Amino acid sequence: MKPKLCVIDDSRIVCNGIMNHIRWDEHGIEPAGAAMDGEAGLELIRRVKPDILITDIRMPRKNGIELFRDVLALGWPCKVILISGYTDFEYAQEAVRLGAFDFVSKPFLAEEIVSVVNKAKERIVAESEETARVRGLERRVRESLPLLRQEFVQLLLRFASTPEQTAKRWDFLQLPLAMADFVVLAVEIDGAEPSVASGGILDIELARFSLSNILEETVAQATRGIVVRDGLSRFALIVNAGPEADAPGQLAELCREHVERYSRHTVSIGVGSPAPGVRELPESYRHALAALSYSFFSGGNSVFRYADLADRPAEVEPYSSDSEKELLLYARAGNKTRALEALSAIYAGFDDKRTQVDPDGTAAAFLKLAEALYDVLAAAAGKDADARARAASELRSLRAEAPRTLAAWKETLDRLCAAVCDRIAAERTHESEADIQRSVAYIRTHLQESLTVQSLARLACLSTSYFANLFKKQTGFTVAQFIIAERMGRAKELLAEGKQVQEIAAMVGYEDRVYFSDAFKKHTGVTPSEYRQRILG
Questions:
Q1: Which residues are modified to 4-aspartylphosphate (predicted)?
Q2: CB atoms < 10 A from the CB of 354, how many?
Q3: Highest mean pLDDT among 87-91, 136-140, 482-486
Q4: 50: nearest Cα among 131, 139, 136, 124
Q5: Digit-coded pLDDT (tens) for 271-314
Q6: Beta strand pairing status for 30-35 and 52-56?
Q7: Model confidence over 213-257: pLDDT tens digits?
Q8: CA 113, CA 111: separation in Å to the nearest integer?
Q9: Mean pLDDT in residue range 395-415
Q10: Global pTM?
């Protein structure tokens, strides 16, 4: 847009010469009007709002200096160029001191007027560009204020500061808080990290946006405060503490309730200690995080006050070493029922709120149990390198991504304990099957010897009762039944080969021929001679 030019002079020749005999369009200037005295000139200025004004100092009704003062009073930012005679030089200097752009002495040439107007135009363009630049900066600052507030508050939560150091930035960022009597609340979205790990980053971003709005509205209804994001799934709330002692705790409960009611998420909240000034904000924040960590026991949707933690004992042994030894004893035996019962007994110590201290220590204790169970699993794998490698890999994964709640730890340990017991039981079954197969092979190759349950159990390095039960479970026969069946089967083969009954009796472990014949008839329904007659015709 071209700058507009007005001329005010009591000489018609001057006005006409400046307005009509100079080709202002070639200089990018728009002639906008002229007046013959100061009063008419002021009306013209009000109506046209020129960017450049040329006025004579000496005029009837209102001189140029008075007109200039009126322009200043109007607050219209036009560049005023004064025309002065020799005797008006001091007036011109005064006008320049007041802020007039320049002055031209009579008599003057058209080129002088063009030159000073072009200078005024250049100044207008430069100032317009500078104004646009400043406004752009101001706009960007306004747009950046939320982010700047976030960064500034995060610094206040982590590093001690003084009111003198923070006051200017506090006012500049327009923080909606009084600079005293704070409490910090740490708010965690329950179950957010598993959702992100499964690819739900968009869901988490939408959740953070909606939950931030809910928290801001809830805080605004109760007190002055600010909500900032503090990581992927956490918010930090700095609020001015109310007159009631538990006002921050009540606010935390209200935030938890509103999130549950107005969203499909739940949150856990830790309430920090009072912070009289900005210097104490980091400590209040640390205490809020310490309180928040106790959601490990609740599993979420809960509020914990740092003040309540003082009532908890400094150190409690939630389970004894004997409990751990009992668990591992049952695990090594593959006794899943008893091992899970031993785990449940260990859990009981952690379910008691009086013993719920130091969530990190509790998680470390559970990791120690997991490591012990994995040691049992690796030992059970024996020479199976692949199985040992799988156990080591699972343990590394558990250390890297440990469960975040007591319930999740219980589920993990139960699953691990059951897997260890199943693996050991399977290994024991496999070994037992091999023991029985070796016993069966031994029986078949030693039918002529005296075979008893006791002797066979000793060869298998098992107790007599366990061996007898295991033998029947795998073969379907008692040891005695199996031995008789194998002996009679072998006797049939020998009879078919034409061996003598006396010889056969000795070969299948019977010293007395009559006793063998009675046993054979009892087993087959016929005597050995009758069987051979039937087979051989």
A1: 56
A2: 9
A3: 482-486
A4: 124
A5: 999 999 999 999 999 999 999 998 988 888 999 999 888 666 55
A6: unpaired
A7: 999 999 999 899 999 998 888 999 999 987 776 889 999 999 999
A8: 5
A9: 89
A10: 0.60
Calculate ∠ Cα 530-535-536, nearest 5°.
Answer: 100
Question: Does residue 462 or residue 30 have the better pLDDT?
Answer: 30
DSSP string, 462-505: S-HHHHHHHHHHHHSS-HHHHHHHHHHHHHHHHHHTT--HHHHH
Q: Which residue has the tokens 């016929």?
A: 526
- Residue 317 tokens, joined: 């042994």
Q: Which two tokens stand for residue 245?
A: 């002692």
Residue 523: name the closest of 490, 474, 498 by CA: 490
> Residue 203 gets which letter from DSSP?
H
For the chain, the 3-state helix, strand and coil shares in percent, each to the nearest 5, are 65, 10, 25
Residue 193: closest CA among 232, 222, 226: 232
CB-CB neighbours of 170 under 10 Å: 17
Q: What is the token pair recorded at 391?
A: 């156990």
Give the pLDDT score at 259: 94
What is the CA angle 157-239-165, rounded to 5? Answer: 45
pLDDT digit string (tens) for 89-109?
A: 676 677 777 788 888 888 888
* Cα 99 from Cα 84, distance rounded (Å): 16
- Beta-strand relationship, 182-189 and 267-275: antiparallel
Section 178-193 average pLDDT = 89
What backbone torsions phi and psi does residue 361 show, to the nearest 5 degrees? -65, -35
Check if the beta carbon of residue 444 is closer than 8 Å to that of residue 508. Answer: no
Distance from C-alpha of 27 to C-alpha of 111, rounded to nearest angstrom: 12
Average pLDDT of every residue of the chain: 85
- Write out pLDDT tens, residues 250-264: 999 999 999 999 998
Stated as kind and residue range, the H or E segment containing 305 is strand 303-305
Rg over alpha carbons for the chain, rounded to the nearest Å, is: 50
Tokens of residue 254, six digits = 């209200």
Contact 38, 61 (CB under 8 A): yes
Tokens encoding 41:
């000139």
DSSP line for 379-443: HHHTT-HHHHHHHHHHHHHHHHT--SSHHHHHHHHHHHHHHHHHHHHHHHHHHHHHHHHHHHHHH
